[in-house]
Amino acid sequence: AADWAKASLDAVRKVDGELEAFLTVDEDAALSRAKATTTGQGVLAGVPYALKDNICTQGMLTTAASRILENYIPPYNATVANLLNDAGGVLIGKTNLDEFAMGSTTETSAFKKTKNPYAKGRVPGGSSGGSAAAVAAGIVPFALGSDTGGSIRQPAAFCGVFGLKPTYGRVSRYGLIAFASSLDQIGPFTNTAEDAAIVMNAISGYDKYDSTSAKVEREDFTQDLELGVKGLRIGIVRNLPEEGLNPAVKQAVDAAIRKLEGEGATVVEVDLPHSEYAVATYYLIAPAEASSNLSRYDGVRFGRRAEAKSMIDMFEQSRSQGFGMEVKRRIIIGTYALSSGYYDAYYKRAQQMRTLIRRDYEQAFEQCDVILMPTTPTTAFPFGEKSDDPLAMYLNDIYTIPANLAGIPGASVPCGFVDGLPVGLQVLAKPFAERTILRVAHAYE
Ligand code: GLN
User: Fold this and answer.
1) 373 C-alpha vs ligand 1 centroid, how far in Å?
2) At 238, which CATH number?
C-alpha cells in the first residue's frame, strides 16, 4: 500500500504541475493511511483515490474551488469519505472543479485551470474536471465527482474515462457541498465499468444523515458484469435534438450501437418528446436551489469574512468578494425565479416540466432496458471558447441534464476518438438499474 501511495504521489509531482488537476495533496496523511491499511479491508485496501473538492474531508481543506471557502477545513467527513476509508482506500488529495460545481469546463474554479490530458489547450470538461483528468492521466485509479446536470458524465467523455452518475438517492450526499439538492449525486470516475462497480459497492447504501437517501437493499454491482447484451433492448431516441451535434461524434456513437447490436442486443426507437425543454427547465431549477443553498455563505459561519464597518456591509462584501461571476449569475437567476411575482411563471412551470420529462423516461423504459445517445454534442473544446457565452455553455449539457431531472442513473463510456479527442457513449437506465448500465458498458469495453 505504501508503494502504491508513493507511486501515486510521484505521479502528482511529475504531471500535476502542468495538468493542475489537484487543489490539495496531503502526502503525510496519504502515507500514514497507506501504512495503516490491512488487506482485510477488502478490494479497495491500499488503493489510492481522489475526491472532488466539494466533498468534505475532516481536517483537510475543502474549498468547492471558491474564494469564499478558501480557508474552510471541515470538522467532519462526508459519508462517502468515511466509507472509502473503511474500505481501505487511500485519499491522495482533492481535485479541482468549477466553483461550487457550476460549469462545464472547470474554468470557473477560483484557483486553477485543469488541462485536458489529451490536449493541453483544451478543457477537461466540468464541473468534475480535476477528478476526470486525475484518472485519465493515471495519477489515481479512481476518483469521485458529483453530477448535478452532467458533471461526472461530461468530463468523463472529454477525458476518455468511465464515469457513472448513480440513481438519485443511491449514494449519500451527506457532506457534499450542496449545489442543487434535488439533482446532486456523487459517483465514480474509473478506467473500466468493473472498477466503477467495485467503487459503487463501497460508497452506495442508505444513510440516515441524508434525508433523501434511498432505502434500498445493498447490492453487488459486479454481479451482472459478464452477462453480455444478448437479448437486451437498446433504445435510441427518435428526433433527438441534434443542434450543435458534431457529425463525427454521432458517427462514433452510432458505431458503438452497431457493435452492441452485433453482440445480440436489439435496437428499438423510443420517444422523449419533452427533451427540448430540459436545458431551460434545468436552468431554472438548479439556480433556484443554488440561490437558497448558497445563502449560508454570509461571512459568519464559513470561510472568508470581508473587513467592513457594519454587519450588513460585512455580508455584502464577503459575498461580493467571495463568489465568482458564474456563481453570482446563478444566484441572481435563482432569486429572480423564486421571487413571489415570478414563482408561478418560472419555478412552478419548471417543476411541471420536470414531471413531464420524468414521465417520458418512465414510458421509454417500458420499451427498452437502456437508452443510448452521445454524452456530449462535441469533443473537448479549447479554453475560452464558450466562457463568454453562457448560453452556448449551457447547451453543451443538452444530453446529460435530463437524467438529473428524472433522477435516473447514467454513465459515459469511452467510445473512440475524433481528431485525437475522446468521445463518450452515454448509457441511461431506469432508477436503480445501475447494474444494467455496467453490464452494457462492460460488454462494450
Ligand atoms: N454544467 C452544468 C451546470 O453548469 C452541470 C454542472 C454539474 O453537474 N454540477 O450547472
Assistant:
1) 19
2) 3.90.1300.10
